Amino acid sequence: MRVTQTGKVDTTFGNYGFLIYDTELSSQLSSVTFNTDSNILVSGHVYTSPANADFFTARITPNGQFDTTFGLNGIIITPLTEYDDIAYDLAIQSDGKIIVAGTASENLNADFAVVRYIPGYITIPAYIDEIQNDNQFIVFPNPISDNQFTLQY
Predict the structure, then answer these.
(1) Does 84 reside within a domain?
(2) Which domain holds residue 91?
(3) How many domains does one find in the chain?
(4) pLDDT band at residue 145, thresholds of 50, 70 and 90?
(5) Would 55 be classed as within a structural domain?
(6) Which member of 59, 107, 129, 138 lies 3.0 to 4.6 Å from 70 by CB, making a disulfide possible if both were Cys?
(7) Ordered DSSP codes for 126-147
(8) Cβ neighbours of 19 (radius 10 Å)
(9) What is the pTM of this model?
């Protein structure tokens, strides 16, 4: 939601002042920042199954729409482990690379996790065998889990 300087809902942003990303399961945003072209970057986590959360990063245009030139329709979901991966903060480097920091859990142990997104990378769901054997792509993480990965092209 965006509000005006007078505290009223700014109906020119998103859908009458709101942008809602509807997930089938729970999700939570934990960080927000702006890049040099006034786009809004947010990060947090989204549950992709009842027992698995993944890093969630999205870029939103100044008018409140997902930036479709970023990730897949404005969103990057990054699975780091088969359990809960929770993003807590994000920053933008001077060269435009995005850093997201949080935790990645294996079983009940949570470890620090830092991911850097480089312009030109996207996250897409795909069939692993079709892409992993093609030498013109670099796939992260390796091994891939939940058929989601980051693809350098």
Answers:
(1) yes
(2) 27-119
(3) 1
(4) low
(5) yes
(6) 59
(7) --HHHHHT-TT-EEEEEEEETT
(8) 19
(9) 0.74
